[in-house]
Amino acid sequence: MKNISILGATGSIGTQTLDVIRHDSESFKLLAISAYRNFEKIIEIINEFKPELVVMIDESAYNKVLEYCKENNITTEVKLGYEALNEVATYNETDIVVTSVVGMIGLIPTLKAIESGKDIALANKETLVVAGEIVTKEAEKYGVNILPVDSEHGAIFQCLQGNKYEDINKILLTASGGPFRGKNFDELNNVTLSDALNHPKWNMGKKITIDSATLMNKGLEVIEAHWLFKVNYEKIQVLVHPQSIVHSMVQYKDGSVIAQLGPTDMRLPIQYALNYPVRKEAIATPIDFFSIPNLHFEKPDMETFKCLKFAYEAGKSGGIMPAVLNSANEYAVDLFLNSKIKFTKIQELIEDALNHFENVNNINAHTIINKSNEVTEYLKGKNIF
């Protein structure tokens, strides 16, 4: 049996991770979880899975969960605040930490988990985007596995089994194209929040769904792939694949291409990561190939969707620039989600930040956090509204 902790248990990935655990309860035990404010769902999780530790970020939600546990004589320990996330990440006999929180918040807990010898099922792509070199070096130092949970990186990881990284000629990273595939800039200028949240294929959290609509999600995945699979950016090619059946491919130096195909169900890569290196009975409904009319691939439009181009540029620059990219994106997306800016303003703010800040190459986790805060403060002072 593997003991699991989840950072971000009530979000999209966290919820689907619980489904995987539920599907194979003889193989997994849930020990520790965190959430921001969704106390109703956390109480349901406590009743079903009986975790030993729960951390809530929101104080009001913390008080509700704590009161519920006391009134019902539940022994689950309940703690408050961001620093307590580190306790979830390093908890006792945990074998695998699923990092499914969104944004920079995942960096320090992930590093703490690695230092305590936990394998990482990584859904928090920002951790590798802003601190890929640091995180991968720490993982090597402490002998832990970083198991990708993103459908694309999980696909690449599977395509690499039995092969050598040095034999990779190219990583072919697929993208659905999001809800605005084929639109020009003028058309994007008038899209609504509801339009942007209407993803044609995947059910994801709001922030990731907006990132998919701008193609920033794919840009972040390019940087993540660079660190996970030790390939240069010139060897990472994005393909728009609207059917989302081929989740990614690897082309080897002999010209062979190995692809991983599957349903649009995040439980599949989660299940593979949690059980690695063992495969278990399917939790997701297998593909019916006779129902697929075609498989289509096309180049991404990086002049209209500039976020993908910005990500390549920031990744190649290295140093602090991926953190600048990520922080600017987080701030801009939050503004859009709160209906304070237009959709096209997201990439304008990111470009502004990338042009404003100079690169710094000698970085650590605290440098990254400080610079990210600087980026947010800079953009707050831009008189955007």
From TrEMBL:
Transmembrane segments: none annotated. NADPH binds at residues 10-13, 37-38, 124, 126, 205. It catalyses: 2-C-methyl-D-erythritol 4-phosphate + NADP(+) = 1-deoxy-D-xylulose 5-phosphate + NADPH + H(+). Pfam families: DXP_redisom_C (PF08436), DXP_reductoisom (PF02670), DXPR_C (PF13288). GO terms for molecular function: 1-deoxy-D-xylulose-5-phosphate reductoisomerase activity; manganese ion binding; NADPH binding. It is an enzyme of class 1 (oxidoreductase). Its EC number is 1.1.1.267. Its cofactor is Mg(2+); Mn(2+). It comes from the Bacteria. 1-deoxy-D-xylulose 5-phosphate binds at residues 125, 151-152, 176, 199, 212, 217-218, 221. InterPro entries: DXP_reductoisomerase, DXP_reductoisomerase_C, DXP_reductoisomerase_N, DXPR_C, DXPR_C_sf, NAD(P)-bd_dom_sf. Mn(2+) binds at residues 150, 152, 221. Catalyzes the NADPH-dependent rearrangement and reduction of 1-deoxy-D-xylulose-5-phosphate (DXP) to 2-C-methyl-D-erythritol 4-phosphate (MEP). Belongs to the DXR family. HAMAP family: DXP_reductoisom. This is 1-deoxy-D-xylulose 5-phosphate reductoisomerase. It comes from Clostridium felsineum. The gene is dxr.
